[in-house]
């Protein structure tokens, strides 16, 4: 009884899940909440950046699809605070807004997508779709137990904690 009470008094880590497929968002939300995590959802990078900026509580981890197509034609503007960008660029921008943010990238075609974005396999935690519940939960717990990466625009695909992660 005491152990259960102690756990409930702890604050659950908050995970921001970003994917343009609503079925993936629903699945991740159900699996992560079932494992005791608080979940925020975003259907695109623009919405995710707004959440990073405006959410008053902590955000401990960003779980984002690597391929986040823009919802339609848009003009590129450097003054746009919430642009539509791919998952890696979202991770870079989100860590500039939220220091200490952990990152997990996911994709249905990992090798092609990592290469096309210039990301070397093993530099950031990666989850290949489709995935099983246990794989997702284990990766999230593992990533949260590690120091958060330091991403910068100049690093482009190379995290400061260059640990071997398996996708």
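Q: What amino acid sequence fits the structure above?
A:
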């Amino acid at each position: 009884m005491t152990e259960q009470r102690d756990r409930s008094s702890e604050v659950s880590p908050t995970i921001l899940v970003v994917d343009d497929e609503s079925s993936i968002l629903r699945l991740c939300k159900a699996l992560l909440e079932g494992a005791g995590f608080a979940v925020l959802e975003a259907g695109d990078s623009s919405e995710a950046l707004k959440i990073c900026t405006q959410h008053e509580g902590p955000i401990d981890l960003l779980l984002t699809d690597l391929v986040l197509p823009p919802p339609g034609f848009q003009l590129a503007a450097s003054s746009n605070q919430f642009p539509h960008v791919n998952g890696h660029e979202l991770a870079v921008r989100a860590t500039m807004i939220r220091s200490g943010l952990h990152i997990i990238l996911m994709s249905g075609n990992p090798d092609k997508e990592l290469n096309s974005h210039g990301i070397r396999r093993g530099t950031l935690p990666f989850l290949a779709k489709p995935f099983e519940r246990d794989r997702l939960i284990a990766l999230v717990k593992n990533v949260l137990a590690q120091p958060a990466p330091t991403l910068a625009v100049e690093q482009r695909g190379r995290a400061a904690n260059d640990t071997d992660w398996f996708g």
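Q: And what stands out in the fold?
A: The beta strands are 14-18, 38-42, 61-65, 102-107, 126-128.
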